[in-house]
Amino acid sequence: MEIRLDGKVALVTGGSRGIGQAIAAAYAACGAQVVISSRKLDGLERAAEEIRAQVPDAQVVPFAAHAGDPQAAHDCVEFAVKTFGTLDILVNNAATNPHFGNVIDVDPPRFDKTVEVNLRGPLIWTQEAWRQAMNPEADRPGGCVINLSSVSGLQFNDPLGVYGTTKAALIHQTKHLAGELAPGVRVNAIAPGLVKTEFARMLWEGAAPDAKYPWALERLGEPQDIANAALFLASDLASWITGEVLVVDGGAMIKGGI
Fold first, then answer.
1. Is 27 a catalytic site residue?
2. 10 Å Cβ neighbour count for 201?
3. What distance in Å separates the CA atoms of residue 249 and residue 244, rounded to the nearest whole number?
4. Model's pTM, two decimal places?
5. In the chain, what are the domains?
6. CA 19 distance to own-chain centroid
7. Rg of the chain's alpha carbons, rounded to an integer?
8. How far apart are CA 46 and CA 62, in angstroms?
9. What tens digit of pLDDT does each residue of 16-60 get?
């Protein structure tokens, strides 16, 4: 079955590399017009060029914006609406993890930064999407929001405790917003396991390319694995799904977690 997003407009935060870039490319390949956002314009321009090389007719444009900055969120959503006429799909993918270690040892600035980007950020971007494009009074109301959580938000006792706390809260926030924005807007989350990205490099660097991992499907995740899930949730095939968390971890959690 071919999934198409023709006529849809998507905005992907953290779209300059890794999972965000893979989601943007998947959407563009299926006919969506896509805005990608992250802090640095040069990285966004590189990602846009790579997507266009992969999908020759891709309509993808960059907009530099810090995911934790409310004014930047407003401006980016406004840009998407002015550029393409509306906004149908928001993917809150941008995240940060400045603290690696025990929760008890985190200092307030790093804790606040993690909350700002990973939890407050998705709320602010969703508010802007709702106010500017998705609410019932908009020119073309409705749409969907996809929040990138993590399996770290579903388990405990690992060195990603602060990051995991924000991702657990993001799941809770996802469910609240799914109820509040229904029936016009669907809000779901994806909880990736360990994926081979620059963001997660310290967790997989040094492993052999053909290494087998201690979970059901044995291999490391790839950004495309998460993009496939995001494509499904954005499509009409998921039209009766909201408030859910799709775990994409290669079966790691059923084997005792990562």
1. no
2. 10
3. 16
4. 0.94
5. 9-253 (3.40.50.720)
6. 7
7. 17
8. 10
9. 999 999 999 999 999 999 999 999 999 999 999 999 999 999 999
